[in-house]
Amino acid sequence: MIVSNWLLLEFPTKTPISNISIDYIVGVMKTYLVLWFNSNGALPSEVDRSLMSLGFKAVQGNYDYVYDWGNNVNLDDILRFTDKIQMTLKGTGVMFKTETVNGQ
Hints:
Largest sheet: 4 strands, antiparallel
Strand content: 35-45%
Order of helices and strands: EEEHEEHE
Oligomer: single chain
Number of helices: 2
């Protein structure tokens, strides 16, 4: 269909991840973590020690920390790990965001 000299293309819709049955994600998976500190909260050095004890490594760039899952990770494991992060940061005044992606 041509409208105002622009060609409109129809793209296939994406299937929501909730509708896909996946037991394991295969590949080098990494969880990236971004933190927002509160000046009335815990010291960044204290938060750093707590996150390192979970297995995170500090990085420079767009993210503050990275956790390397290795080759296979269960989606439920990712959720349980995110729960651990939330429990670790609870009461510190720190807000966080995670992003788990294929790190290759």
